[in-house]
Design brief:
The chain has 447 residues and is mainly alpha-helical. It is built from 19 helices and no strands. The chain binds phenylalanine (PHE).
Length: 447
């Protein structure tokens, strides 16, 4: 077996991890979650969740990955806790299920890029969405998106993922800044900013119980936590960098990109008087795209927007494919190209039902969000905080000038605060899955 690769530079790792974090979650779900949860009220709680829960949780995955220099399944064995491989494996499974539908949405984005050029969605965005989101077109664009993802992962850590994300991330930021500047010139800008940035504390108080778990869930998803992805990426760190410093940079950039996306989406929506964020991901593709069709210069705006979305989606999908790929490449004698292709084809197949029905896609998403992701985070927290705590404390301090007090505080945070926050999300998540399945009455959660 050939030698295991590492990132060429520290910045290379940061770009790759930012690439994983910045995705559909930032540019698509974040503005629309904010929109459907009362605007700035949600934003406030989301920021707290990202920095107080997400950031320390990211360190958990980093510690497992760098501490073992192994893929997320073998990592636990290497650290001397073979039974815990189950936790890593569940994370890898979650990556596969997530990529299966994430790449379908990536495929929709490809259709919208084409639609911006032909003007196909300008007249009736709803009909366009119906045509490209479920059925043969969607299966095809899903395949195309997966093919690009496989292409990048096949080239490996340095020549594939690191090189690609070093181009994608700056491009995403520059283009988003450009769009946000354009957004500022629109008629809806003032109203949009107002909704986005001035919190309605009455709304917050009244909806606290539903805002908190959504914000915590979104914080984990946007930081790619609970999928073993950050375990895999940190395992390619051959160096003694400061994990908290790298993690801090990743969290800050990821948050800035999400905030920027809000500065694009809200002015556009308010410019045409659209309701911000009613009814889920599909409706989002309809309302924003519809707005592009109605404002001056909207076709260029739309084209650029969907290009950004595609780059962001790809820089995330490669991390989701890398996670299972790293396991097979570490343990079996197949070439990376073979493994990426084989696993990519498997993911594509698993995703086909979601390319045929947006309802099925909603189910995959709900199971990941409400069940798999919180369970994996919970397992990691118990492992890092309680089971392998000495090792974790050593590893978090390596390469830093932080004193032992930092490690101790972090460890207690991981032991208590993160499990409580994610445990709450899990309980509410299971409840909402049962409601979705028709087992529970919606009144239970509302009452
Ligand atoms: N963080 C990505 C986003 O915001 C999604 C993702 C989750 C990517 C998990 C990789 C792993 O879109």
């Amino acid at each position: 077996m050939s030698e295991r690769e590492t990132w060429t530079t520290r910045v290379g790792f940061i770009f790759a991890a930012v690439g994983s974090a910045v995705g559909l979650g930032n540019i698509w779900s974040f503005p629309f979650q904010t929109g459907s949860n009362g605007g700035a009220a949600f934003l406030l709680i989301y920021l707290l969740a990202v920095f107080l829960i997400g950031f320390p949780a990211m360190m958990m995955e980093f510690v497992i990955g760098r501490g073992s220099s192994m893929n997320p399944i073998s990592a636990f064995e290497k650290l001397g806790y073979g039974n815990w491989s189950v936790a890593g494996a569940l994370g890898v499974f979650t990556s596969i299920v997530t990529l299966a539908f994430y790449s379908v949405v990536g495929g929709w984005v490809i259709s919208y890029i084409a639609g911006s050029l032909t003007g196909a969605y300008f007249g009736d965005a709803g009909t366009f969405f119906g045509a490209v989101s479920a059925g043969p077109t969607s299966v095809l664009t899903h395949a195309l998106f997966m093919a690009i993802t496989i292409g990048i992962v096949a080239f490996g850590i340095q020549n594939g993922i690191e090189k690609a994300t070093k181009v994608m991330i700056p491009a995403i930021i520059v283009l988003l800044v450009g769009l946000a500047a354009w957004g500022a010139t629109l008629d809806g800008a003032a109203a949009g900013y107002e909704y986005y940035l001035s919190p309605d504390f009455g709304y917050l108080a009244a909806n606290f119980a539903s805002i908190v778990p959504s914000a915590v869930g979104q914080a984990f998803f946007t930081l790619s936590l609970g999928f073993s992805v950050m375990v895999a990426y940190a395992s390619y760190l051959g160096r003694d960098d400061s994990l908290p410093a790298d993690g801090g940079a990743i969290v800050v950039v990821n948050t800035l990109v999400a905030l920027l996306a809000g500065f694009v989406v809200f002015p556009v929506l308010f410019a045409i008087g659209a309701e911000p964020g009613s009814g889920g991901l599909g409706a989002a593709f309809v309302s924003l795209a519809g707005a592009f069709g109605q404002i001056p210069g909207g076709s260029i705006l739309g084209f650029v927007f969907f290009i950004i979305l595609l780059l962001a989606a790809l820089s995330s999908s490669i991390s989701l494919l890398e996670t299972p790929t790293s396991y097979v490449v570490d343990n079996y004698d197949y070439s990376r190209k073979q493994v990426a292709t084989g696993l990519g084809a498997l993911v594509w197949a698993v995703g086909i039902p979601t390319a045929l029905s947006t309802n099925t896609l909603g189910w995959y998403n709900a199971v990941v969000f409400n069940l798999l992701l919180p369970v994996v985070v919970l397992l990691f927290a118990v492992f890092v905080g309680w089971v392998a705590s000495d090792l974790s404390a050593d590893e978090i301090g390596r390469g830093t000038t932080l004193d032992a007090g930092f490690a101790t505080t972090w460890l207690w945070w991981v032991r208590i605060v993160i499990p409580v926050a994610i445990g709450l999300t899990l309980v509410l998540g299971i409840q909402s899955l049962l409601i979705r399945a028709g087992v529970l009455e919606a009144a239970v959660i509302l009452g």
